[in-house]
Amino acid sequence: MAILKLLVVRLRQVWPGVRITIRGDSGFCRWKLMRWCDSDDVRYFLGLARNAVLERKAAEWLAQVRTAHELDGRGHRVFGTLSYAAGSWDRPRRVIVKAEHHRGPDGGKSNPRFVVTNTGGDPRAIYEEHYCPRGDRENRIKEQQLGPFADRTSCHDFEANQFRVLLAAAAYVLVEPIRLTGLVGSELERAEVSTIRLRLFRIGALVQKSVRRCVVRIASSFPGQALFLRVAARLRQPRHARPTPV
Predict the structure, then answer these.
(1) Distance of alpha carbon 116 from alpha carbon 45, whole angstroms
(2) For the chain, what is the domain count?
């Protein structure tokens, strides 16, 4: 929580009117963190581990989707909201319920999910539009670890490993604008960093340097030649003239 406080303070120093939202899994669902967010005007959407009390409170919605599945054999989901406080919490809070029953053999499977939040609004919109995007952020973290090799921290010295992670983060930051502007409309528009690196960067070329310029000569048989030239041309354009990602 200490790191979170430092980040919030720093963000508000730069953007005083910014609205800050925290998304996290059940590991972040601690009452001290939620109490601090409540008092400092920080919104949160935090996963809440299922337990017998929550399932009992959500029994009506769970029975509804189970009955619907028994009638037509298809998957169903409904959303609701309830008030809940774990034994260690300082007070009850709003919990979003996603009651879902998957289709499958032997009657399918119940798959309830719970999210605690300090915001109002439609339960379904909160779950799908505010909480679920957390999964994509986790994918981006994983991509940053594997694509630029941030997980290669085999040095015995901590600072050396930290420097490797910083280099990987810098590489990811450099690739991101290429994906968001240079690759818009191409087959690599939604590609991960590792794919972009292999198909666009990791190619054989002859580099010739002179007093006035540096020339990169790529083989005429390079299959990604047209895409490479298009990306290079886009990146040379003024920012306002670059294609905007959808």
Answers:
(1) 6
(2) 2
From the list 160, 153, 154, 98, the residue with the least C-alpha distance to 130 is 98
Burial of residue 144 (CB within 10 Å: 0-12, 13-18, 19+) is buried
10, 32 Cβ separation under 8 angstroms: no
**246 in a structural domain:** no
**How much is the pLDDT for 91?**
92
- What's the CA gap between 34 and 42, in Å, rounded? 9
User: Which amino acid makes up residue 226?
Assistant: A
State whether 37 and 102 are in the same domain: yes
Residue 132 phi, psi dihedral angles, 5° rounding? -60, -35
Token pair 């590991």: residue:
27
| Same domain flag for 150 and 94 | no
**Which range of residues forms the domain containing residue 122?**
2-132
Residue 241 has pLDDT above 70, yes or no: no
78-102 pLDDT per residue, tens: 999 999 999 889 999 999 999 999 8
Cβ within 8 Å of residue 246, ≥6 positions away: 184
The pLDDT, as a whole number, for residue 243 is 63
